[in-house]
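Suppose a colleague, Dr. K., hands you the sequence of a protein chain of 162 amino acids and asks what its three-dimensional shape might be. Before reaching for any lab equipment, you can write down a predicted structure in token form. Begin with the sequence itself:
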Amino acid sequence: MTWRLIGPIWRLPDVTASQRLVLLALASFTDKNGSNAYPSLATLAKMCSCDRSTVHRAIKSLVKRQLIEPTGKARKGTIRYKVNVPMQQRVLHNATSSVGTTQHNPKYIPSYKNPSNKGDSNLNFRNPPALNIDRFSNVKLPESGAEIAIRMQREREAGRKR
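The predicted structure, expressed as tokens, is then:
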């Protein structure tokens, strides 16, 4: 499953509740590219707590709207899908580059050894801060497997020191 699909699926306009739920359930089976999902209708119906015919109607309408596309058949005859949700592009914020007395110099790399540059946002021209326009940005996503492993290791080490 790719977490990058969850936010854009929530932001899709003109999608019914059953279509959104089926799309979210289908996205949970995808690989990191948003493809190669092949759950059965019964599995999707169980996940979405609805009837198989509701899932079938939702899939038909999602294919018609080109939000998903069938890409073949899997081993047991289930249809393999690719999720085609438009991903939101990050907007770069360049408004601060002309503010202040510092001239735009693309070769200038600020020195963070000097504490006076620490909070100066208009000095870093190579990597301007991205404007966050995602309305779900304050939602904390679950930890990844690597983050869980690191946290568990820290907790074990803290327990040994006591």
